[in-house]
Amino acid sequence: MVAENNPGTEKKGGMTNICLGDLVEFENQERKRLNRRLAQLAAKKERFKILPDDEEQELDFLGDIRPIVKNFIQLEETTDKDTERVNALFIGVRDLFNSNSEHNLKLLSAPLSNFTPKGLLEGLSFEDLVKVALVVGILSADGVSAPGLAIEGKSIRSKRGDKNYPAFVEAFYGAVGASERSFPLAAKVLPLLAREGDPDPNGKNGTVKCREFAGVVRCLEGRGVRNNEPQLRRYINQCLNKIQNVTGEDRIDEVGISIPDFMSQADHQIKPDNVMLMGPILCATMFEELKVFQVLDKLVELSQNGMLTIGEGEAGRMLYLYWKNTPNRISESERRNIYSATLGVPGGDGGGSPNREFNDLWLRFISAVSSLVRQRTVDQLLRTSMPASIGQQQVRKAARDLAMNLSARGYGMTYYLAKDLNVQIKDIIKILEDQEIRACFGAGNMWQVIDQVATLELGGARNSARYSSMASSGAIIIAWLAKNVHRYNRVTSAAVINVDEVVSIEPPTSGEPTRMPTDYDLVNACELWLADTATSDERIEEMAQPREAPMMTSRPVQIPSIAREMLETAGVGVPGFGLGAGMTRRL
Questions:
Q1: Do 114 and 81 form a contact (C-beta atoms < 8 A)?
Q2: DSSP letter string over 517-533?
Q3: Is 477 left (phi over 0), alpha (psi -120 to 50) or beta?
Q4: Would strands 205-208 and 155-158 be described as parallel, antiparallel, or unpaired?
Q5: Closest by alpha carbon to 244, among 275, 211, 271, 218?
Q6: Theoretical Cys-Cys bridge with 35: which of 72, 169, 176, 507, CB 3.0 to 4.6 Å?
Q7: Among candidate residues 22, 183, 155, 143, the one with its CA nearest the CA of residue 86
Q8: H-helix or E-strand containing 220?
Q9: Is the pLDDT of residue 581 over 80?
Q10: Closest residue by Cα to residue 209 from 17, 443, 19
């Protein structure tokens, strides 16, 4: 975000306005959150007439801060560039940059002013802009928790007494040091990224996201790219494609499931991409229980025998291609081996290594999430200060144990198998949703086609509403685990689940819960899974209690052949429960 006509920018790529887009995005999100929280607390006080001391103080603070930020109005709806900001990360960075020079920190050439509603930072030189964007991006990418806010006159400042303040200051100076080291390369990268974010190829107004900027700089440094690289732009686009997960092949998100930006978690070796791979596999597992794959095979058979009343058209072509590609698809026995090895579902051939711990870890996590929110709701109703038996740390441990289990099962060919399953599921959905196919069975949707074929040709239908609901719920839970590793994999991080938002009057929801789930989406998915599997309250309470984590490695460990033979001889290779959904082993 460079001031217009800044003489220091023309020589850096010709951009006269560089907007740091995520600062505006973060600011608007925080304004919405605070406005919802204010409405929630006000409604709660009106209902109960009295609030606990901490909530009463929070309500007073939000009431005081509201006029300073113009009633939490969105930035694009105002032209007042002098309105204060409430994004704690930006406030913390601004305060530390504007404070007295400490630890040899070089002060900016101009005070770090508020950014305009359009997303511009005014009064900064190009060099200072690079430093600000990189520092904000590093802190955001690393998931650093910013300190809370305090009011000083008509200004908003970081709360120095906040528990997160010391760690934030340390992380800030670390980011400043990284920005100084990377400055020559970053100064070349920023204008090129801004051009990528400019809708007008000949224009001079570009948008850069600080987090992507920092990610690209780190990616380039990891590849050994220097600022004098003649093909720098090509390397930037490669890194940007990796960060944004842009590829030229079929992606796992086509059925509402996608792999997010990946962060390597060295602490416990949890790989978010490995976790995310389990989404398509779980979806395929539910399709297996519904006999969806068998239904497609039966439709192909009926079409070959001329038993389907379809002519030359798209439906017939899709069935033909599905039959033609049969040798290239994963067979049923191979699919069941995948389900057994990754999710512990019964049905594998017994020669592999089934994931026996998954079912227990899965139920423990969703039970802990459900119990945490349920007891908060009960506490509000009873208005007591009874101690909570399930807290954030129990949820944190359950999430970490489950994610480690999934991550360890995501190595090797799992990615390619999940991708093939995802492609097959997309083809199946497209065929079953075809109007001509549905007309053959008088069905209004694909689930009715599945029920009709399974009943008439495959010995009976399963509960399609149940298993389709479990597929969606499971995908949301896995996506949340993959997207929030930084929240539950660090002991000192903030609350794993924002219960206040979940139980608020208007909880935040995502338009794409299987890609970008919120905490509210997670809680809903957990409750729906427990309801679909008819898990009793007693069972939920029992499973939510903390237990010692099972013995498991963060990565696969080669077992000596003699040990494998002994395990197979002893029959230990038989898998267990099957997602708590009453699935049975098919021999």
A1: yes
A2: --HHHHHHHHHHHHHHT
A3: alpha
A4: unpaired
A5: 211
A6: 72
A7: 155
A8: helix 210-222
A9: no
A10: 19
Among 464, 342, 323, 347, residue whose Cα is nearest residue 405:
342
Q: Measured between alpha carbons, how far is 525 from 366 in angstroms, rounded to an integer? A: 9
What is the tens place of the pLDDT at every residue in 269-302? Answer: 688 888 888 988 999 999 998 899 999 999 999 8
**205 membership: H or E segment, kind and range:** strand 205-208
Using CA atoms, how far apart are residues 162 and 150, in angstroms rounded to an integer?
Answer: 10
Whole-Å CA distances, 580 to 12, 257, 577: 59, 22, 6
Q: Which helix (H) or strand (E) holds 172?
A: helix 165-196
SS (H, E, C) 29-84: HHHHHHHHHHHHHHHHHHHHCCCCHHHHHHHHHHHHHHHHCCCCCCHHHCCCCCCC
Structure tokens at 372: 């945490």
DSSP one-letter code for 158: E
Alpha-carbon distance 543 to 367, whole Å? 6
**What contacts 317, CB < 8 A, 6 or more positions away?**
none
Amino acid at 581: A
Count of residues making up the chain: 587
Q: What is the pLDDT of residues 22-62, one digit of tens each?
A: 888 888 888 888 888 888 888 888 888 888 888 888 889 88
Query: What sign for the dihedral angle of Cα 569, 571, 572, 573?
Result: positive
Torsion-angle region of residue 538: left (phi > 0), alpha (psi -120 to 50) or beta? alpha
Contacts of 87 (CB under 8 A, 6+ apart): 23, 26, 27, 30
Residue 350 has pLDDT above 80, yes or no: no
**Predicted TM-score of the model (pTM):** 0.53
- The whole-angstrom distance between residue 115's C-alpha and the CA centroid of its chain comes to 28
Residue 580 CA, chain-centre distance (Å), reads 24
pLDDT at 237 (0 to 100): 86
Residue 73: φ, ψ to 5°: -65, 145
Q: Which amino acid is at 418?
A: A
Q: Which residues contact 332 (CB under 8 A, 6 or more apart)?
A: 293
- Tokens for 242? 């990796």
